From TrEMBL:
It comes from Pseudomonas arsenicoxydans. GO terms for molecular function: S-adenosylmethionine-dependent methyltransferase activity. This is Class I SAM-dependent methyltransferase. It holds the Pfam family Methyltransf_11. Keywords: Methyltransferase, Transferase.
């Protein structure tokens, strides 16, 4: 979602209302990372990229649609072999360089449209693809490729935007947000589970998170600022408010309740069945 916003808003005008005082601001992206960690991402203690998805040095992890490499950097720090695949050559190279400071035991990179993946059958023990399925023309074909390259027993971490957040954006987001090559479909919870099950995977968990980012996106469209310099009172006040919510005595409970109502993403952890 964040890399899509950056692309859509490149060259947007500066905010019309500058900040009146030079005060230390809450970094909305670091706050978003903290919020994600509270939702189960990047658990340093357990080595789980997301709850139920542990990554170990003996794993071979494939990330399809690697984006800025945040997910695979965490996995590379666990010592796993990392395979990245993305249609954007610049992102693949940037991620390759980012992985250079990790103890990943091997790094393999592919610039590809993933149709098909240039990877042998039964290669990966861990497969990650976050916020990609909503972009592709044929989700069934895409998922079949992910299943093909996973070893029997491999774990899968898959995510797509949650319909609650997407529905909020419909009349507010830039028109191209819902046009090819961006989000060309809104996937319901039932559709997402069916897609994964029909591909031959066993769904182990299905969760959602991201009220903070859902609201931030709404305000972002209204602020009409460049993503690379998203400085506007609407966004700054929202970040201040959410940080105060999380720091409050019942902040975790409030976050959980709001994530259940409006979520940025839905996440499925699945397993490829063992061979007969």
């Amino acid at each position: 979602m964040l890399r899509l916003l950056k692309k859509l808003t490149a060259g947007a005008p500066a905010p019309a209302t500058p900040a009146a005082d030079k005060v230390e601001k809450v970094d909305p992206y670091m706050l978003g990372l903290h919020d994600a960690m509270l939702s189960g991402w990047f658990n340093q203690q357990t080595g789980e990229l997301f709850t139920g998805f542990p990554v170990r040095a003996e794993d071979t992890l494939l990330d399809v649609g690697c984006g800025d490499g945040g997910n695979v950097h965490f996995c590379g720090m666990r010592g796993a072999k990392i395979i990245i695949a993305d249609i954007d050559a610049a992102k693949v190279e940037a991620t390759r360089q980012r992985l250079g400071d990790t103890p990943a035991r091997d790094i393999e990179c592919h610039v590809t449209d993933c149709n098909p993946l240039p990877i042998a059958d039964a290669t990966a023990t861990r497969v990650v693809s976050t916020e990609v399925i909503e972009h592709v023309d044929d989700p069934a074909q895409f998922l079949s490729e992910l299943v093909r390259v996973g070893k029997p027993g491999a774990l899968y971490l898959l995510s797509v935007p949650h319909p609650s957040s997407e529905d909020l954006q419909k009349d507010i987001a830039a028109p191209e947000y819902f046009q090819k090559p961006n989000h060309i479909r809104i996937i319901s919870e039932e559709q997402f589970k069916a897609m994964v099950s029909d591909a031959g995977l066993e769904v182990l968990s299905h969760s959602q998170y991201g009220f903070y980012w859902s609201m931030w996106m709404l305000l972002f469209w209204e602020a009409k600022v460049d993503f690379s310099n998203a400085d506007h009172p609407l966004l700054n006040h929202w970040a201040d408010t959410w940080q105060a919510v999380l720091a409050s005595p019942r902040g975790a409970q409030i976050k959980q309740a709001l994530d259940a109502v409006v979520a940025k993403s839905q996440v499925i952890i699945a397993r490829k069945p063992m061979a007969d």
